[in-house]
User: What shape does this take?
Amino acid sequence: MGRIVGYIIFGLFSLLSLCVGIASLIDGFTGIGDVTSVSGKLEIVAPATDNALGLTDMGPVIFREAEMYQYVIEKTSETVDGDTKDFRYLGEAFEKEPMGEFKTYPTLRDAKSLFGKEKKYVNPEFPPEFLNINNYGSSVIAGDVEIDGVRLDVSILRLFNGEGFGMEDSTVAAYKTPENAGAAYGLKYLGDGVYASKDNENWEVGDLRVSYRVADPEILAREYTAVGVLNEDGVLCCDEEYGALYDSVVSMDEINHDFKSKQLKDGVLFILLAIGLAVGGFFITNFLCDG
Assistant: This one.
């Protein structure tokens, strides 16, 4: 029975890798498909604005990371005489998502004690203005940006976060940061694009720390090529299969060539992986079952 289960498990992973490999090879032979590319200089029709912090005129896109110092559950394990036990107890840390309320032991000592009792802990509300649609503190805030009259969706502009685009902190001199930015939440500017409830590390539960990065204006003078799919409103977006942003003018032939090369390479690798899983799984299963 164990042998059959092993064959099935390795067989399923092998089949999955084979399917991915074949799909990649097909894409490698057929090409990138029905996409649109636009090239030229970025036109910032309306700059990115962070209403929560009160930041305006921040270029094409803002990348913001918000954290709150909260009660959290710490976990540890100890092994004594071959017996492993897990312990949960109270800790404090910066988190990018609301940790809510929970019960746990106040200390590790309490968690280990036969007389220790769990207590209820309630975190302050994480300001919803700093959370994205997934209830998480990482946000991409896009302005109204066009290339050659075609508006770029946030899914394209978020690619500024990749290598070679010179993303900087908010100290970029060309942007005017309001002196009272963050005041609505009692935040102080610490430099390097960081706002926090305190200018030291004596953090308390409920304290906020928000950092952001923007594109250096020097790189915005370049010409770019954006590749994606036009939606029904004529906005260029990344779809599930493809989307790209280049900091130079790139032809569609070059883009298609790079896409085909990558897909063919990935296809071969996944097929080799499928073969390895099938062969390796056969020998590993037999070894374990015979042993």
In short: Residues 2-33+255-290 form one domain. The mean pLDDT is 86.
